[in-house]
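Case study: Fatty acid hydroxylase domain-containing protein.
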Amino acid sequence: MLPYATLDEAAAALGRNLTVAETLWFNYSAKKSDYYLYCHNILFLFLIFSVVPLPVVFISLWRSSGFDKYKIQPKVKLSPSETFKCYKDVMFMFFFVVGPLQLVSYPSVKLIGIRTSLPLPSGWEVFLQLVVYFMVEDFTNYWIHRFLHGKWGYEKIHKVHHEYTAPIGFAAPYAHWAEVLILGIPSFLGPAMVPGHMITFWLWIALRQIEAIETHSGYDFPWTPTKYIPFYGGADYHDYHHYVGGQSQSNFASVFTYCDFIYGTDKGYRFQKKLLWKLKKGVENGVEQNGGSYYVPTQDLKSD
Ligand SMILES: [Zn+2]
Ligand SMILES: [Zn+2]
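Here is what the predicted structure looks like once written out:
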């Protein structure tokens, strides 16, 4: 809710005319409560969970040979009913955990100072805040995820997320309800440290989920724009973590690769990459490949 009745009042308070984006924001938000604006996240998340995975899911169901070469684990094929079951389970969690969590977490959003007011932040401010949010989330998520791979954490909680050893986009938010709640903390820490505008917060929640869907897509497309982000993990990186499963001591980070590099938890993955490269070289020299599987079925390297 904005404290101005008209655009002229808002312009007088700002001491300048409103930009086009600010006028749009005024027209949309002036009479809506901050709580209602915050709850837009529920609709955004519903749309992202339902729509963003669809293109790659269709590609995967149709098994187009043109795209098959980009599938990370080409031998694993989920049927339409298995794919739909994953979506149904995610929606169950969405309506009973994710949605209610959004509804009740508003006081903390208010407390940390997420604002809906004018002026709107500049593009640079939004960009830099998003960078901070991604970095903070990546670091905290890394340690929580690593903890969840301990005996207790894995058996009681994290095992659910690893039911998909070859993940699909719908499986990105597929997890135990406790994991959904716990991983809300890393998502919230960045905005708590550097609070921004509600629009930045919406963008953060949306981009983080879109990124998670991409890394769970099961496909490593060479043309994906995220390939240009420095230290970005991507689908191949996280897919390996799912492939190894509960035993995995590799690739814990959610977005970037630097945490796994610094703490030495990317050794299994690097070893596999090297082995795969040698195998490809072998194929070029006439040696038969490993049954068409992207990964080589050796034990993941324990790093600690
Ligand atoms: Zn895991
Ligand atoms: Zn995952």
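For the exam, be able to explain this: The chain has a mean pLDDT of 91.
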